[in-house]
Amino acid sequence: MQLDIFEHSRDIVLRNATVDALRLRDADACAVALAALSNEYPADPLLPAFGALCEKLRFSISTPLAREAAVALLQETAGTVATAAQEVFGKSAHAWLAPLWAELAAAIAHDPFDSDNEELHAAPLLLRAGRWAEAVASIERIASWRRQPAPLAWMIEAQSRLAGFDAIWPLLAELAWMAPHRALAMAPRLELSELDSLVRDFDAEFEGEGAADDFVWFPAWALVSDRRLAAGLRLAQEGAHTPPESCARIVLGLLALERQGRHGELVANRRKLREAHPVLFVRYMQDR
What does the domain layout of the chain look like in residue ranges? Predict the structure, then answer.
């Protein structure tokens, strides 16, 4: 009976040996362990995933890296390799993949930002690798990064990990005015409790069209909901002067006039808010 138990667990022993070699990123040990598992248990369901990861350990990126090669590597790592890592490591897959993303980022570090193929840039790869400060430096090298949705979104993600909600609030407002779909999609990924709470309340309270475009009004609504956000929003750079941005800046002015007690100007600016967005005006007046 003891022998039967040992024989039955042999596949587990060989699997663990392969996993250990992968964790140590030891290509030779991985090849040996994988060969043993394959010989004794050729139908093991993890063999394809183990094979893909072991093969990846043996691969090194040559620089300079041609664009076509970079595209192929990005697709392979995000596809076959990431799927295999998830199958083998589960929640720890991200940590195993991080060096691969960092290596690819280094290989294309000097490539310019291309809005038509935005993922083929060092910054988003560094974000995948969890290299927040390096990602910030990479983004800052992009000309007019703050005026383009992708680099601005990358900066928000990096700074959210480094400095939290206060640091990204003005940038998030700019992204919401510029690309509301993108801002709404990225908000939950930031895992910031203050932002999550604001977005939940916005979804519940704001009377819009029920579409992702509604998020363009989020900065103005957030100010009306919590005047403490005013100081941060004043740091947001002026954009295209769209109605949602203008509305947010009207609210900013109202909050300042309330503190200063300038009644005549306050009444005039409340009229501007009512004309700009009647629903927000009603919400603003609820607390006055």
Answer: 147-288
